[in-house]
Amino acid sequence: MTKFDDSSKIKEIMRGVVEMTIRIKNQRYYTTEELSDMLPLTQLSIAAYIRKGKIRAVKIGLLWYISETNLNLFLQGTFHNEVK
């Protein structure tokens, strides 16, 4: 058995890579996976809200990131397409 035979270890390592809150100019950004853990929403629902413009997000590489500001706007019911 090699160190790569244990798929649970690989998933654990990848989960640590994927679940990565980042900071840009003192603004915290969450992945869709992190939001699905924090909110009663699935990643598919969050992705749908992003597509519909209800949550503003930026794509960095393969992942979508939602800023703390945009998350708060969404939670307050202020959708991005309503903000001027």
Would you mind describing this structure in some detail?
The protein is an alpha+beta fold and 84 residues long. It has a domain at 22-78: Arc Repressor Mutant, subunit A (Orthogonal Bundle), CATH 1.10.10. It contains four helices and four strands, in the order αββααββα. It has helices at 7-18, 32-38, 43-52, 68-76, and strands spanning 22-24, 27-31, 58-60, 63-67. The protein has a four-stranded antiparallel β-sheet. Strand 3 and strand 4 (63-67) form a beta hairpin. The longest helix has 12 residues, at 7-18. The mean pLDDT is 79.
Task: Annotate the secondary structure layout.
Elements: H1 7-18, E1 22-24, E2 27-31, H2 32-38, H3 43-52, E3 58-60, E4 63-67, H4 68-76
Antiparallel strand pairs: 1-2, 2-4, 3-4
